[in-house]
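Input record (Table S2, row 289):
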Amino acid sequence: MSTRIAFLKGHGTENDFVIVPDPENALDLPPAAAAALCDRRAGIGGDGLLHVVRSAAHPEAAHMAAEAEWFMDYRNGDGSVAEMCGNGVRVFARYLQRAGHAVEGDLAVATRGGVKTVHLAKNGDVTVGMGRALLPEGDVEVSVGERSWPARNVNMGNPHAVAFVADLDHAGDLYTAPPFRPATAYPDGVNVEFVVDRGPRHVAMRVHERGSGETRSCGTGACAVAVATARRDGVDPAVTGTPVTYTVDVPGGTLVITEHPDGEIEMTGPAVIVAEGEFDAEWLEGVLS
Ligand SMILES: N[C@@H](CCC[C@H](N)C(=O)O)C(=O)O
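Output record (LBFN2T5F complex):
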């Protein structure tokens, strides 16, 4: 009789995740295991893995245990670790609600980017306090084929390069990471967003994510895009004292981003659990051997 491990599948604006509940951090999930689970042909399939662990049971999160019971141990589709995943933390909260670990209202979740407050609303939307954006100085150029654009550095805990383009098709097939200059700009890699205007305080984007490739949505990316667009539009809530809200269309839906005068950014969108099942521990052991 083989050993079975429970998993769920969920998405936020079609940024999809394999969710593995492991409260006591008992599973061995090295990068190759995360990549195998996220593999769309030989595994379950997802842009990333949400490993659900009690903060107290994880060495990277124990210091946050007093503030947040649960730690989102997020991995990209290639198994690499990232500081933060905005859609992931909303789906993570939805899982906690489904499992009976959270109810409608506010919930603290520990992440590698610190403790985030997530609000599970009655209407099904999930809002997360994403913290403040940093806008490191430095000229960066992103290119696709013959075209290139200046890109704005925005750090949402993880790195983003935001390029305003005339047409989202100019980003090409995004099968590979768009090259940037200077080549040394992002020693740890970068998520690249391509943005077009849709209307007043309304944009659309495509993204190539570090460690996952092109995805249908990226929450930290949408926040980076909202902040970069606001600054391009000459809007800074810290100066005006008034919050500003941008609607960001992604291929998988729509996210609403509000930046407050103190710099705090909130992101709202849907988060859905679509399936629940079990995989064979032996399959994963076989993949790893
Ligand atoms: N899809 C995520 C971002 C995941 C991490 C990213 N690929 C990175 O490596 O920084 C989101 O919704 O924010």
